Amino acid sequence: MPKIKTHKATAKRFKKTKNNKLLMRKSGQDHFNSRERGKTTRQKRRDVVMSATQAKIIKTLMPYL
Predict the structure, then answer these.
(1) Who contacts 47 (Cβ-Cβ below 8 Å, separation ≥6)?
(2) Residue 22 neighbours by CB distance under 10 Å
(3) Domain of 47, in residue numbers
């Protein structure tokens, strides 16, 4: 049986931690940020741990990660 291919666009956007949790970037960092509060801008710089239901879908696209 052949290997399952990793979805490369997904692999570039998500990172797996030591305890098998998935990290993702917060959305909305590209433009129109001048109108946001400073607190919001700072919070968007951090990676966020995905929920278990979202992570289950992503793990099917990245079988070997």
Answers:
(1) 15, 23, 24, 25, 26
(2) 22
(3) 8-61
